[in-house]
Every structure is written in structure tokens, then in C-alpha cells.
Amino acid sequence: MSTFVPAPPVRVFNADYSPLDAVHWQDAVGMMLREVALALEPHDPPRVLRSPSTVIEVPKSMLLVRYAAVPYRRTADHASRTEILRRDDHTCQYAGCGARATTIDHVFPRSRGGGNTWTNLVACCAECDHRKADRTPAEAGMRLVREPFRPAAV
Fold first, then answer.
1. What is the pLDDT of residue 70?
2. DSSP letters of the chain?
3. What are the backbone angles phi and psi of residue 128, rounded to the nearest 5°?
């Protein structure tokens, strides 16, 4: 009698075959027993789970029987005011200032096509934001303490 070798996470696909998630093999077996999902791809060699009344092959991937609506996920490069202030430690990013940042500034102005991205937004104080106005830092004669960046944890 062979012993069961724990399986890696099982990939789950929505009913339209779009990738959805990965679940632990025990959750995958439970989904199959509840008839929520069907096995798509077997392991090679097969990983079989045996009980006195049932033999189940743990799948490598599975397909949901019914479509699961996925909530909207914003793009990874979009940044919020709170995230920018946290990234910049609530400190004005313009050289020579160092005041507490209360707002965010678009390095390349929105009126010229600058977006709400990690690399175009910096935290700044109201005075520096007003002084820079609708210009680039170079045009306003202002220098950034550091270039804006996208944190690795996002």
C-alpha cells in the first residue's frame, strides 16, 4: 500500500478557464467532494488519497462548476494619496523643505498628461505644491530629495 505524498497547491480556474487562485490540496479535495469544482489536470505520478469508502486523486488544477464573479482589481501602478504619503513618510519631497507633507504633487502635471502612478506622485507640503504649480520641478527650479518609486510590497 502506497503512502500519500502531500501535493503542492492546486491551481483553481474559474468556469470560463481564467486563472482564479491556488488552494491547499485538502481544500481542493473538499471542493471536489462538494461538487463545486472538477479536476482538470492530474499529477504525474498520481497522488491518490484513500479512505475506507472512497479513493480520490488529488488534481494539479481544477475548474469551478459555476462562474465566480471577481471584484474589480485596480492596476498595480495606480497609487492613492494615502499610499504616497505613507511611502514618503509624510515628509515633503522637495529639497530644502522637509516640512510635514499634507498633500501629494504630480511631478509631471496632470494637465500635461501625467498620471496617478507611483513614479509620478510625491508627498509634499501645501507651500511647495503651490509654488511648483502647473510646472515640472525643473521648470519651477525645485529639486526632489529622491525620485518617486513603486514600493516592492505593493
1. 83
2. -PPPPPPPPEEEE-TTS-EEEEE-HHHHHHHHHTTSEEEEEEEEEEEEEE-SS-EEEEEEEEEESS---------TTB--HHHHHHHTTTB--BTTT-PBP-EEEESS-GGGT--SBTTTEEEE-HHHHHHHTTS-HHHHT--BSS-----TT-
3. -65, -35
Give me the mean pLDDT over the 124-137 stretch: 94
d(CA 20, CA 14): 6
Give the residue from 94, 103, 86 showing the smallest Cα distance to 154: 86
How much is the average pLDDT of 2-28? 85
